[in-house]
Design a protein that fits this description.
Elements lengths: L1 E3 L2 E3 L6 H19 L1 E5 L5 E5 L5 E4 L1
Antiparallel strand pairs: 1-2, 3-4, 4-5
Length: about 60
């Protein structure tokens, strides 16, 4: 339990595997809903590209 500005709050500790699973789920949802695919690029950067691979966006 931690004390925040609005009182006591519960803080959940997540494992690396839990975080990776959540990221994979959101990537799948983005692809199904918006037609974008999220892939891991060099140096741990995420790349977002359209499913027809015509555009590629990189976010640091």
């Amino acid at each position: 339990m931690a004390r925040g500005a609005k009182g006591d709050v519960e803080i959940e500790t997540l494992s690396v595997r839990q975080i990776e699973a959540a990221v994979q789920l959101e990537a799948q949802r983005a692809q199904e809903t918006h037609g974008f695919k999220i892939v891991s690029g060099p140096e741990g950067k995420l790349k977002v590209c359209s499913t027809d691979a015509t555009k590629l966006y990189t976010r640091k």
